[in-house]
Design brief:
The protein is mostly helical. The protein is globular and about 80 Å long.
Length: 354
């Protein structure tokens, strides 16, 4: 049990991170909130599948495996950068996901890499799938950040703003890391309120989710929504990360801040470059949205993959018939010498009789 306070707003919350227990198994609010965020993002994704011309059953496979990849890589990313501080002396704690410690960029890398592999395996168009994911993930992130609130983590430096927060865990953390933060050039006063950076990021993601949702019908090419998601999230994270006191570091550099800046620039340049190509082409068919293609229409009607299956069966039958023909031909060739030798034997017998 710990407390979180917003002194200027006269708000105080007493929070038990454990929602309930099943025997010795503790179910924590952090995990529940992350799960709720994922499920709501999934529901939203399903409501938008037709806007991207994708098959719902195959999309489920991609999302579920992508979610596993996201969880594993989010934890792995965090553990790698915090190994010496938190896990070197007790490596088994690296598995304690419920305690917090999931790095969003690690999760995104895992989700999209595994998702890309599943798209290939399940014959799902990659860029429309990434667009669908980008439009949905922001909702999950907006909700999931409240897991940080329950754990009293992902907060920033001191502030005098009216929504500044404090609490027992926050005071303890800042007291323990005061010297370390000072070496990074960050001065903190443990008993003073701090920026609720989890809240900033939650609101930023929610706003991005709304704006991208409005823009969906106006997208110019497949992959644009995904790039807009990368650009939007990275732009906000670039500034929010600069306020935090628990950043993953390489020396004196904030890993997520550098990565956010690079991704923002790359995404914006790519969007502008592709749009410029579309405009110069002056061809309505150039980089046509997948949802407007005949293939997407067949998927909506439930005919495309059946047609593919029938074609595969025909190819197998054709290959099988060719194989049988080759075997017959081989047998005919092998019989010819036998017939010749039989003829030779007959000639020999006739000569003998003479």
């Amino acid at each position: 049990m710990h407390t979180i306070e917003f002194p200027a707003l006269n708000l105080e919350f007493k929070i038990n991170p454990v929602a309930f227990s099943i025997g010795e198994l503790e179910i924590r609010w952090y995990g529940i909130i992350i799960a709720v965020g994922f499920l709501l993002a999934l529901v939203y994704a399903f409501s938008r599948i037709k806007n991207f011309g994708l098959d719902s059953d195959r999309v489920v496979d991609v999302i579920l495996f992508g979610a596993v990849g996201a969880l594993v890589c989010a934890r792995l990313y965090y553990v790698i950068f915090k190994w010496s501080e938190e896990y070197a002396d007790d490596p088994i704690r690296a598995l304690y996901v419920w305690e917090g410690g999931l790095a969003i960029y690690g999760g995104l890398i895992g989700a999209f890499v595994v998702g890309a592999i599943l798209c290939k395996a399940r014959k799902v168009k990659l860029l429309p799938m990434f667009d669908l994911a980008g439009a949905s993930i922001l909702l999950g992130q907006a909700i999931g950040r409240w897991g940080n609130f329950v754990n009293a983590e992902a907060f920033g430096t001191n502030t005098e703003l009216p929504w500044g927060m404090t609490g027992t865990n926050i005071v303890n953390y800042l007291t323990q890391h005061k010297t370390e933060l000072a070496q990074m050039g960050i001065t903190v006063y443990p008993n003073s309120p701090v920026h609720p950076t989890f809240l900033y990021e939650s609101l930023w993601c929610l706003l991005g989710f709304i704006l991208i949702g409005i823009y969906l019908k106006h997208r110019k090419f497949d992959g644009e929504i995904f790039l807009m998601y990368i650009a939007w999230y990275s732009f906000g994270r670039m500034f929010i990360e600069g306020l935090r006191t628990d950043s993953l570091m390489i020396g004196t550099l904030r890993v997520s801040q550098i990565l956010a800046a690079l991704l923002f620039v790359a995404a914006v340049i790519t969007i502008l470059a592709v749009r410029s190509k579309i405009k110069r082409s002056n061809d309505p068919e150039y980089l046509k949205l997948y949802v407007l293609t005949e293939e997407a229409e067949l998927i909506r009607q439930g005919k495309f993959y059946k047609k593919k299956g029938a074609e595969s069966e025909e190819e197998e039958k054709h290959d099988s018939s060719e194989s049988c023909a080759e075997e017959v031909a081989k047998e005919d060739i092998s019989e010819e010498p036998t017939q010749e030798s039989a003829s030779e034997n007959t000639d020999t017998e006739e000569k003998t009789e003479e």
